[in-house]
Amino acid sequence: MAEEGDSSQEKTEEASPRKIEKAREEGQVPRSRDLTTTFVLMLAICGIWMTADFIGKKIVGITSESFVLTRSEIFDVNTMIAHLAQAIYQGLLSITPLMIALLIASIVGPIALGGWNFSNKAIQPKLSRMDPLAGLKRMFSIKSLVELFKSILKVLVILATTFALLNFFSQAIFRINDEDVENAIIHSLDISLIATLILAAVTIAIAMVDVPIQIFEYNKKLKMSRQDQKDEYKETEGKPEVKGRVRQLQREIAQRRMMANVPDADVIITNPTHFSVALKYDPETMETPILLAKGGDHMALKIREIAKAHNIDVLESPALARSIYYTTEVDDGIPEGLFMAVAQVLAYIFQLRAYRKGKGQRPTYPRNLPIPKDMQYDK
Question: 349-369: per-residue pLDDT in tens?
Fold first, then answer.
């Protein structure tokens, strides 16, 4: 038994849709920082490539306007402040397209894996996070050490790539000093573009390794045991005793609603002891007679009591009562096969009401009602 209990706690089952949904509600979604870094670098490259000429010309213009000044402008404080403000404006204008690209990258990068998810629970303060012992335990856990090793490895790879790039472009960088301002700026932007492209390629390789790892860790964290699945099923579907109680309450509510309709009936047809059905028909608003209520045994007796209290006619017709009880649901119309039999009963009831008001002769009680064989029930 102990072994069975232990094995049932092994988290070997894939996470259910409900558990994944609850995890998202708590802010738990797979994320990859390396994927975000890759997005930022890639869009930065695209931004630099598309705006290199624009930025270069703006910088050349700022340089010309800032360093080619007359003597009077140099000694005029207001003019120098105006030059500074203009330089700042032009500088911000030159990098605005690039900043927009980086803003898009900072939004798209984090949601590229796991999608958009906003959780109130994730931002709520938790006292457990303030526990220093729990914090130390997390810091020196195996998971933290693995993450530290991965971070060091990524930094070393990027540093090695950066040093290799600096070594490769060192001569070109030194030659920039011998170029004129415009060519030097454009040349430096070209070098930056190529270097960034190579660094992005490195981060793409890192992201291709990190993304599967993050997905694996996320799925592993959400794995469920057999007992977890049973508990979730009980929580979602409800415990059998609770479901039984709910069904019982639903039946009681339906029965009370059905009994409330009995006073509106035109006639009650009985078995006479085992079944009772309540019918209503309004030629102006109804195409067919409607079954307002039905019941057997105790419920049948209750229907007759309500009918008696409201002076509703009760007719004994065992065959017709059984047929209506078994073939018709509450609030539904009478089946076509029973139209003739029910019509004779209703005609008798309407004629009986007229007779009681002193109009016409007393009607004859309907017997041998026409009920199709396939709608006849012995019990």
Answer: 888 888 888 887 888 888 788
